[in-house]
Amino acid sequence: MAVEILSPTTPMAFPSQVKPNHTKGNSTDTPSTTSSPTLSSYESSEVEISDVHSDIDNVISAEKLKEIERMESNPDFLWMTTEEPHRSRRMAILKAHPEVRKLMGPTSLTIPIVFLVLTIQFTAAYLLRSHHPFSLPFLLTAYVVGGTANQNIFLSIHEITHNLAFKSIRANKILAIIANLSIGVPYAMAFKGYHIEHHKFLGEDGIDTDLPSKLEAIILDNVFGKTFFATFQILFYALRPGFIRSQKPTIWHGINLISILFFDALLVKTLGWKPLIYLIMSSFFAGSLHPCAAHFIAEHYLMNGPLPTKEDQNKTGLINGDEHQDWLIKGLAQETTSYYGWLNILCYNVGYHNEHHDFPSVPWTKLPQLREMAREYYDPLPQHKSWPYVTWKFITDPSIGMWCRAKRTSKGEKIDHSTWSSAIIREDQATQVMEELVEEEEEEIAYMSDSGDCKKKNKLE
């Protein structure tokens, strides 16, 4: 897979300490440290999870360094001490392209698509009511039609989670629960809470439940294990949050639970068990070895293989100058990877994943426009050419596996948004820092979650 990496020639803000992932058995390598005096501390503005983060100074304390060293005993995870890369790139793009703001906000196109796909699924379930669940027509329909349709439903709920179908928060939640009917199990409201945390705390160990645990990485670190994970990944994503970070149930969780159980009971009573089995089987295939399901792996796994350690850089004489800068930014650049192929048509453009994490408030219909507006920021980043190939490479490439994820122990040191601008313009000049007030405003509205300005405007909760 051809990958282009930025090769900046100007001083930039990078991780103050990065431990690249490396091959098994080298977990005792000496940690590499790179000074970055331009970084500052970053604190969460979210009250409900403020207990996870503690105040840190502008320089890393000895206690924090010891904590990082302990975490680095986990082989092969890429441990970062900076924040996730999307906030800083969002600020850089907004400064360079303020017209991006016009793309933000709901799109009504999601609504009819949800009902169209529900109609397809309920029709297929009805037509298969007399077929055995292990018959060829049942299995083929569940994989080809059902797997594709329910993956589309999963991603419609993802879109609705960001309040991008209606302006009303309550209306978005109701639509998410309606979409949930074809999945067969309660899902929408639990996903909402975990997914917003995935955006705000990307890569944070113990918060971002998209990350594999150390136990998963140890057990599944082989071809058979990776095949098992790719086949049953929908179960990993469903069960992992309960072991890592439980949610506080809300009234909406209860409404979601009751609605789906009532619909399932009604379906079984009127048509028997087979239609319900079809819906649940469709959900399984949607998160299994299915072409569309490859996006789960493609989005955040480091598919370019292990980064070289500082010791490797020293041995090859590439520890100084531009090559070293290139090594540093590579960790940030590949933490999220986009895919621009035709399967996005079936998947709400979720392949535009760098764009989505940079601007979760931009709906799926306008993510291609966002990329065109800020092409100079996105073209140099690594990108996937094929989702099915991602799954194949993940399973068969011994240098890639469950360890290939970027992790951080806390929110991380703040990255100056000029990092991305400097890498693009390649001029020896500093970019003026945006006003703090504007920055705080963007931080509140960026995720289209149920808090901040979005909630104040709707006044529905």
TrEMBL record:
It is found in: Membrane. Its EC number is 1.14.19.17. Signal peptide: none annotated. The keyword Transmembrane applies. It is a multi-pass membrane protein. Its main location: membrane. Keywords: Lipid metabolism, Membrane, Oxidoreductase, Transmembrane, Transmembrane helix. Residues 1-46 are annotated as: Disordered. Residues 72-110 form the Sphingolipid delta4-desaturase N-terminal domain. The chain crosses the membrane at residues 109-128, 134-153, 174-195, 215-239, 251-271. Residues 27-44 have a biased composition (Low complexity). It holds the Pfam family FA_desaturase. CDD domains: Delta4-sphingolipid-FADS-like (cd03508). Belongs to the fatty acid desaturase type 1 family. DEGS subfamily. This is sphingolipid 4-desaturase.
